[in-house]
Amino acid sequence: MAAPLLEKVSDYLGSPEPAVRLILSILIGYPFALVYRRFLFHQSASVIHLFHTLSGLSLAIFNFGSQVYHSALCIIVQFLFLRLMGKDGDGRTEQLYLSDGEKDVYTTRTTCLKDLMCFSVAM
Predict the structure, then answer these.
(1) What digits encode the pLDDT tens for the residues 27-84?
(2) pTM of the predicted structure, to 2 decimals
(3) Nearest 10 degrees: CA dihedral of 66, 71, 74, 76?
């Protein structure tokens, strides 16, 4: 039902449908934020996490369609990696491959990139 409406809106605006979907998903985030602030701000952490998960997934599915499975798979793999390796798991992985035990630029760079990926999971 939404596809014919979005097609008409994108034809009226003269822009491609993915661009209209992106703008709409950004604008839909504002009512979600109002609902969160008004009704869920003082709820338990599990209720807040459930709301953010469901609203984020619904926006992602609306915006990306079936391509959201790739992002979901990446998030699940990173989550499992963090759970299985524990805190500072990337350091233990690098120590397995280093024979001299000294840190150099290459190992700190990969650690930095892995930390950035972990931060993206947390956000």
Answers:
(1) 999 999 999 999 998 999 999 999 999 998 899 888 888 888 888 888 888 778 777 7
(2) 0.60
(3) -80
